[in-house]
Amino acid sequence: MKTTSLGGLRISRIGLGAMGMSAFYGRAGRLDDQSIRAIRRALDLGVTHVDTAEAYGPYTNEELVGRAVKGRRDEVVLATKFGLVSHTGRPGLDSTPANIRLAVEGSLRRLGTDYLDLYYQHRVDQDTPIEETVGALAELVAEGKIRYIGLSEAGPATIRRAYAVHPIAAVQSEYSLWARDPEAEVLPVLRELGVGLVSYSPLGRGFLTGDIRSLDDLESDDWRRTNPRFAGGNLERNMRIVDEVRAVAAEAGATPAQIALAWLLAQGDDIAPIPGTTRVDRLEENAAADRVKLIDEHVARLNNLASASGARYDEDNLAAIDR
């Protein structure tokens, strides 16, 4: 597995997002043994970058990852997030220094480690100045409890304000062939500052694999059933995207998932996708995407794909991003 650097943090070119092992996607939390095997296989293949958050579960995903990497801490770059869960009793988002102190101790305990490689603010807390939040995180860096600081779904102005307090290694945002929002404003700022972009949901929440052709392919408790890009007929309209990805995959001798990931890797060394899966075979398929080379014609065809139909979140979740 090739490696790259996010603001000085060395990681595998392709990582592993663990969220779906414990939350949101149906059967989550019912496949722990299978998920642990997938995480351990990832480490075997040189996939070092593993991403979780205290809010996934909540807490159960960090516990799962902690069990999976036990005894292999030196092989993994552990990334987790705070801010969606308040430990101070404050309603809503909580990125106050007091909450950060409580949150980091819990994450360290659940992950079975004495330091975190990358610690993200999960969503920007508009009631706590970003300077105050990053100042508290900088103290944790000085104490050795975290190595690098990250933001998630932050807007350009917030990124600049945060970076002025302490260098930011990475910003995590949804970025894929059907979610290219960061390209307009966020990516230029990140590249100016030397900050990496961690791409979550790089496979379009599984849609770009070509395996989801209707809502019947999703379990009854799967969160995607209510997501605007899957609901209200948008899933059917978005088939034109996945059909073109499948066509390119057939020509390139790869799978649709590998094409979607290879396209992201082709956007620059500062892009680090974290596809998620609970299955070893899918893990191996995703990890092999760093060996797929797209020709210029294929990149151009993918670049020219139509925009996805439907917003990527509902109104409440949209209000919490790009702040």
UniProtKB/TrEMBL annotation:
The keyword Oxidoreductase applies. Keywords: Oxidoreductase. CDD domains: AKR_AKR13A_13D. Residues 14-305 form the NADP-dependent oxidoreductase domain. One of its GO terms (molecular function) is oxidoreductase activity. Pfam families: Aldo_ket_red. Gene3D superfamilies: NADP-dependent oxidoreductase domain (3.20.20.100). One of its GO terms (cellular component) is cytoplasm. InterPro entries: AKR, Aldo-Keto_reductase, NAD(P)_OxRdtase_dom_sf, NADP_OxRdtase_dom. The keyword Oxidoreductase applies. PANTHER family: AFLATOXIN B1 ALDEHYDE REDUCTASE, ALDO-KETO REDUCTASE YAKC [NADP(+)]. This is Aldo/keto reductase. It comes from Actinoplanes siamensis.
